[in-house]
């Protein structure tokens, strides 16, 4: 009977962990909707800055085929990242509590270090997980996309 109770307890714990993950994902989805306006503003500003670097004004009508190679390269180099207030809404859990959330991942694909007990992990909407600090740095400074599958976090 105690092994049955233990199995039930483990099953309940897994269910609670999955419910917590889904709740965190729902909160993240809500934050994504709120961040949409900020993302659009950030993109508009980046395009405006790129256009200014190419000698164009926003009110100018232009076609990309009329742009120089350098101007096109400037447009391509615009970095879109994730705002910090959105990063703070991503699900964070301790590595030993992550269970099914990290699947078979045993290393952080950003720093290539193994996950150890008591480390904070972030689980992205695509379900890939990373060390919290690694994920925050990647998403706030380099790209808004998952480094593994390239899916946008927003």
Automatic annotation (TrEMBL):
Domain RING-type: 108-150
Keyword line: Metal-binding, Zinc, Zinc-finger
UniProt xrefs under PANTHER family: RING ZINC FINGER-CONTAINING PROTEIN, SI:CH211-59O9.10
GO CC terms: nucleus
UniProt organism field: Pyramimonas obovata
Protein name listed in UniProt: RING-type domain-containing protein
Gene Ontology molecular function: any one: ubiquitin protein ligase activity
Presence of the UniProt keyword Metal-binding in the record: yes
GO BP, sorted A to Z: ubiquitin-dependent protein catabolic process
Matching InterPro entries: RING_finger_E3_ligase (IPR051834), UIM_dom (IPR003903), Znf_RING (IPR001841), Znf_RING-CH (IPR011016), Znf_RING/FYVE/PHD (IPR013083)
Keyword field contains Glycoprotein: no
PROSITE patterns, per database record: UIM, ZF_RING_2
């Amino acid at each position: 009977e105690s092994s049955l109770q233990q199995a039930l307890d483990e099953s309940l714990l897994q269910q609670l962990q999955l419910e917590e993950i889904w709740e965190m994902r729902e909160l993240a989805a809500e934050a994504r909707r709120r961040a949409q306006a900020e993302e659009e503003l950030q993109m508009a500003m980046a395009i405006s800055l790129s256009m200014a670097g190419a000698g164009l004004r926003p009110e100018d009508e232009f076609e990309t085929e009329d742009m120089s190679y350098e101007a096109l390269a400037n447009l391509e180099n615009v970095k879109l990242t994730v705002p910090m207030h959105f990063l703070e809404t991503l699900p964070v859990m301790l590595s030993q509590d992550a269970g099914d959330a990290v699947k078979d991942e045993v290393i952080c694909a950003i720093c290539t270090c193994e996950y150890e007990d008591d480390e904070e992990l972030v689980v992205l909407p695509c379900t890939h997980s990373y060390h919290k600090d690694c994920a925050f740095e990647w998403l706030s400074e380099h790209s808004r996309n998952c480094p593994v599958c390239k899916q946008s976090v927003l």
